[in-house]
Amino acid sequence: MADNGDGTKEVDPKAVAGSVIETPSAGAAAVPSITTSLLWFVANAASEIIEWGHNTKLRDKQLRAFYPNESYFLSGLGTVSSRNAAFDWVLEGATVPIGHIQDVLNNANNGRGWHDLMVKTSIDLYTQDNGAFWEIVRAGDKPDDVVIGLNHLDSQECWHTGDPMKPVVYRDMKGGYHQLPWYSVVELAELPAPVEKLYGIQLCALTRLLRAAEIIKNITTYESEKTGGRFQRAVHMVKGISTAEINDALAQVATQADNKGLLRYIQPLVVGSVQPKAAIGQDVDTEELGGAKMHAEISGTVDYRLPDDPSCIKKLRELVAMLPDQQISSTKTVSEKNPEDS
Fold first, then answer.
1. C-beta neighbour count of 11 within 10 angstroms
2. Strands 132-138 and 235-237
3. Res 123: pLDDT
4. Torsion over CA of 9, 12, 13 and 17, rounded to 10 degrees?
5. From the centroid of its chain, how far is CA 208?
6. pTM above the 0.70 mark?
7. Cα–Cα distance between 40 and 43 in angstroms, integer?
């Protein structure tokens, strides 16, 4: 914004109108649409982050989901953000305004303070191609009204309009849209893109480091899963096991590990079968395996095989009738002696 000579900065409408650069109206061109709004989410989209310059909102959403899982970049982001919040600042000017501005900074972000404001701003600045945003709260609705508050605006809820008079549209938590005039918002970009149609879009630090960050993430994820995963380390199998039986056994072992509270170790899996074919390689029914016919005709442990109980009882009577008669003799076979004779 140009300095008008009295210390205030304001857009000169004549300068805007006389420029060859096309400046769309905030009311006509900046309402979030299906291609720019976070309400649009491609459920079946590939997991790869989309190319820069195409659907910045969706890309920023993917970037925001990416960096919490990449420990190296996240650690660096935390260090730089904390450093920015810890910088010393010196305010110069009249005593009364200086004290007021100091209070505004100390109570930024609706009382959360300067540290909270700077950390959130730094995270958006370094990870979002949309950049970072501050809301300037004034006592009135004019450019020269006193500043009474300074707040961070979520980059995901802000849209650049390209209109210098109302450069940003903000969506609140209730879904309401607000066109913010130039004196009520600050747009921050670390490396602004020179593409004219990408109003306010930048090449953030994460975009510039994304390929290297993806490689590091893949390596750390691989090492974590390899060394700390609760995968099956051994499966002992015998012949005749189907795929379904193996899957059922794996699920059962996993459930048992959960019940025992095992997070990393899982016991070896043993899968067996009660089917004879698993051992001898052919189908065998229970009769062939150990039925009455087999014992009567092959093993020889059975002499007679009868169809039912009456036939069995009749056969038993015939066999008992074939036994020789037993006569009980009353003759004493042992002489009794008188104890007195001995």
1. 18
2. unpaired
3. 96
4. -130
5. 25
6. no
7. 9
